Amino acid sequence: MKLAAINPPRLRTVEEEHRSATWLELFYDLVFVAVVAVLSARLLDDTSWTGWLSYVGYFILVWWLWASHTFYADRYDTDDLVYRLFAAAQMVAIAFIAASLSTGPSASTVAFAAAYAAARLLLLGLYARVYLHVESTRTLVRGYLIGHGIAAAIWIVSIFVPEPGRFYLWAIALAIDLATPYVLRKEQAKVPLDVSHLPERFGLFTILVLGETIVAVTLGLGHVPWQWATSIAGALGIILATSIWWVHFDNLDGFVVRRRGQRTDWRPTVWIYSHLPLAIGIAMMGVGVEHAIVAADADHEYHAEDRVLLTAAVVIAFLAIAAIESASMHRGSEGDKRTIVITRLFGALGAAIVGVLMFLGPVWTLLLLVFVAGLQIVADVVRRSRVPEELRGDDDVSEVAIE
């Protein structure tokens, strides 16, 4: 795309039948790779319950930053000079967020609050620009400016409030941010998201966190001497990540639910927000794999909390995939989709059973999780072979409207 110096935002979702992620969006995602990596390092150092809660809390905040920007770009991205400058400024703020989350001397909840507030204010600036130039969506954008603006103001106030009050303000601000789209759901139905662009963006973020598992394998192998046990654990870690990728992406048939008219439906919301636990589970899995590789060395012990972390991550991932598939049901696919959902639930149960077998070592834990994931793939292959070819879905992105 040739860069226009100034190109006012417009509603993209009514102009183009098919859109793909832009180079700027792919570049923008890179800064979130850094944030997820830093969060994983925090969890690697502390797998206690408090470590889990801190990890999940920060991950939700970071994911919402990515998702809310993605929703904006899905509707209004024009990739002009002004938008690129705003996106670059957001990347600076998010890089500061990553630094504030480190376990070193730069760790600071004050810095996190300031950087997060800056990122939210920049998003408000983009929406203010839309309000000026896109008259047809002013009612919706006005609601965003009010809701997200109140939340941003709370983030600013939290900079000056000591802990733990600061954390309570963060929770309130996040609740307001998340409630804003729900309150505006009828207006959003009039300004639908792009059913070709949005699945690709969420899929790319899933690939991003899957990449963290690959990084975790290399880091884990780098911390121990070469030996059979650690090498097998590393290989199993990559196979496990590949299996999750296979199970999830091989069943994305391109159907995306979006709300139409005045009726409400649970499926669009579930489809979107189920990607959050999916990302959390996959990212946690990477940390669990790294712990397992290090523990496979004879000089290290495999702690119960490390085993629970790994197996719980797989359970969360399978449950999230089941929710996404359930929300993707459309006329003519109900029976096939229900089979997939039930299969994923059995996968989650299998991973949970592995988690309670406290006598298992790291290699056996990984091996059994790979076995559980492998059964999911086998079940999918068998199911697909029994479906007549004319009834199989294709990979073209299409829409299921809620009438």
Provide a descriptive summary of the structure in words.
By secondary structure, this protein is an all-alpha fold. The chain folds into two domains: 12-190, no CATH class; 197-402. The protein has 14 helices and two strands; from the N terminus they run H-H-H-H-H-H-H-H-H-E-H-H-H-H-H-E. The protein has a two-stranded parallel ribbon. It starts with 22 loop residues before the first helix and ends with a strand.
Which class do the helix and strand fractions yield? mainly alpha
Give Rg in angstroms: 22 Å
> What's the arrangement of strands in the largest beta sheet?
1-2
Distance between the termini: 35 Å
Arithmetic mean pLDDT: 86
Strand content: under 5%
Question: Which geometry do the CA atoms define?
Answer: globular
Low-confidence stretches: 393-403
Treating each run of at least 4 consecutive H or I residues as one helix, how many helices? 14
Tell me roughly what share of residues is in helical segments: over 70%
Whole-number total of structural domains = 2
Q: What order do the SSEs take from the amino end to the carboxyl end, as H and E?
A: HHHHHHHHHEHHHHHE
Main sheet record: 2 strands, parallel
The beta-strand count equals 2
Helix and strand topology:
Elements lengths: L22 H23 L3 H28 L4 H20 L8 H25 L4 H21 L6 H19 L1 H6 L6 H26 L5 H22 L5 E5 L6 H8 L1 H21 L8 H24 L6 H23 L5 H25 L11 E5 L1
Parallel strand pairs: 1-2
